[in-house]
Amino acid sequence: MKGKKVFVAMSGGVDSSIAAALLKEQGYEVIGVTMQIWPSDQTHPEVEGSCCSLSAVEDARRVAQLLDIPYYVMNFRDLFAEKVIEPFCAEYVQGRTPNPCIACNQFIKFEGFLSKTMALGADYMATGHYAKIFYHEDLGRYCLAKAADDKKDQTYALYGFTQHQLAHTLMPLGDYTKPEIRRLAEKLNLQVANKPDSQEICFVPNNDYKEFLKERDMDVRPGPFLDTKGNRLGNHEGIAFYTIGQRKGLGIALGKPMYVVDIDVEKNAVILGENDEVFGLELISINNNFITIHDLVKPLEVEVKVRYSAKPAKALVSPWTQGQVRVCFEKPQRAITPGQAVVFYQGDLVVGGGTILKQLNNR
Questions:
Q1: Which of 45, 37, 13 has the alpha carbon at shortest distance from 207?
Q2: What's the confidence (pLDDT) of residue 217?
Q3: What is the Cα–Cα distance from 230 to 207, expressed in whole angstroms?
């Protein structure tokens, strides 16, 4: 790959650092870049392992110096606020549970960052994600596949790729396990070799999204807890502070375990039910994107994940109205949550995915 220029998104962590090292070893002309995304008028939370803290910038800079590659910081603050932070807040106020990392991947990394780097002459951009990208000869399309390390596989958060983006993106960690990556970092004497992985939402201090929403003066009002028959059980703090499947932290004692099974935005109500009422068989998804096919025109048998940590479950996905997709599971799934991603697989390949709009009432 001599002469091919690749800009590597370096977060200051071990994964993106080794991505840069591997690509340089493979003969690419590597340039390291950290994306500055935290709003300039706010103090950044210095959370250990955070992917966008000030210390992360310094970690990435030191790695770039050690690898002897150029290093830059690019400003994506306004785009991040528009595409990630503002929708994050708006979704919670509408009773949905957003996934800001997916929005960041889709709009900041693989749209904004890729566009900016290609304008600077890049052939590719690269990240330290655990996933595989390759051209599938039989399908005649670029594809996204699960990583070798099943525990670290990140394809759930990457379903939004277009063909153009896949054609110009490299993910060199797809064939490695996390322990192997840390060992490579130790061999290179990288200070980040044993740096903890980022576990929290990078722009929310102390991972306290309730306080974050309150500080931004979002329209969050107290309202009723209702059971599934409409009976009032008590009062909640605001629908933004609850998510489907939640049991702890409800602030109400009913003598038996109760879970959030629905959120009624019109009534400003949180609906509580027993454990079996948290499960559902069908959902509707919106903002769907497909990778292995151009579009979904007929029912397709797939395996589906409704959250990052979920095991893939057999389901039938079918075209619905106005570009929506209906997902019918073989077995009931727990806590189908509006706002979260639903991702479709066939074997290791990511067929596509979308955002859960609602669960159909067929518990």
A1: 45
A2: 75
A3: 33
Q: What angle do CA 129, 161, 295 make, to 5 degrees?
A: 145
**Rounded Cα gap, residues 172 and 174, in angstroms:** 6
**pLDDT tens profile 259-307:** 999 999 999 999 999 999 999 999 999 999 999 999 999 999 999 999 9
Please name the helix (run of DSSP H) or strand (run of DSSP E) that holds residue 318, with its range, or none. strand 313-319
- Alpha-carbon distance values, 56 to 6, 47, 101, 202, 305 (Å): 21, 10, 17, 11, 31
Tens of pLDDT, residues 22-71: 999 999 999 999 998 876 555 454 444 455 556 788 999 999 999 999 99
Cβ burial of 263 (10 Å; 0-12, 13-18, 19+) is buried
- pLDDT given for residue 48 in this prediction: 47
Cβ-proximal residues to 162 (8 Å cutoff; 6+ apart), any chain: 289
Q: Which residues are catalytic?
A: 104, 202
Distance CA 161, CA 107 (A): 10
Which residue in the block uniquely carries the two structure tokens 């900016």? Answer: 116
Q: Which residue from 327, 323, 328 is spatially nearest to 296, judged by alpha carbons?
A: 323
Residue 88 CB-density burial (10 A; 0-12 exposed, 13-18 middle, 19+ buried): buried
Decide the pairing of beta strands 279-290 and 349-359. Answer: antiparallel
Q: What pLDDT was estimated at residue 208?
A: 81
Alpha-carbon distances, residue 300 vs 263, 281, 293, 356 (angstroms): 30, 16, 11, 18
Q: Cα separation of 257 and 308, whole Å?
A: 25
CA distance 124 to 246: 41
Rg (alpha carbons) of the chain, rounded to whole number: 21
DSSP state of 205: G
